[in-house]
Design brief:
The protein has 5 helices and 2 strands; from the N terminus they run ββααααα. With 112 residues, it is mostly helical. A hairpin with a 2-residue loop joins strand 1 and strand 2. The radius of gyration is 28 Å and the shape is elongated.
Length: 112
C-alpha cells in the first residue's frame, strides 16, 4: 500500500506505509573538518578533488576553510582576549560590595 508519492524534479519517490524520512543531518567530527580545511588551504588538490575524496559537498569544504582562516587569527590574539575575559574589574566589584553593604544596613534598620 502506497501512502505518499512525491515528485522532485523528474524523480518519483514512493514511500511505503511505515517508512519514515530521516530529518537528521550528517554531522562531522572536528578532526575531520580540520583535516579537510587544512588540505584545502594547502592547495595541493582542488576543492572538487577533495570533495570527491571525502564524499562531501564542496560548499562544506569551503565553509570549513573560511572558518579555519578566520579562526586562525584568534590563536595569536588569545593572550589579549583572555585578559579581557577574566571577569569584572576591581572598580565594578567595589561598587557591588558597596551596594550589598547599603542593602544590609537598610535591612538591619528595618528589622530593629
Amino acid at each position: 500500500m502506497v501512502s505518499k508519492i512525491w515528485t522532485i524534479g523528474k524523480a518519483l519517490i514512493v514511500f511505503q506505509q511505515g517508512e519514515r524520512l530521516s530529518n537528521k543531518r550528517q554531522q562531522y567530527k572536528a578532526e575531520f573538518k580540520t583535516k579537510a580545511a587544512l588540505e584545502a588551504t594547502k592547495g595541493k588538490r582542488t576543492i572538487s578533488e577533495l570533495s570527491a575524496l571525502c564524499q562531501i559537498h564542496p560548499t562544506l569544504i569551503n565553509t570549513w576553510k573560511k572558518s579555519l582562516v578566520q579562526g586562525a587569527t584568534g590563536v595569536c590574539e588569545k593572550g589579549k582576549k583572555q585578559v579581557a575575559k577574566q571577569g569584572p574589574s576591581e572598580e565594578e566589584l567595589y561598587k557591588e560590595i558597596g551596594k550589598f553593604k547599603m542593602e544590609q544596613d537598610f535591612l538591619g534598620y528595618i528589622r530593629n
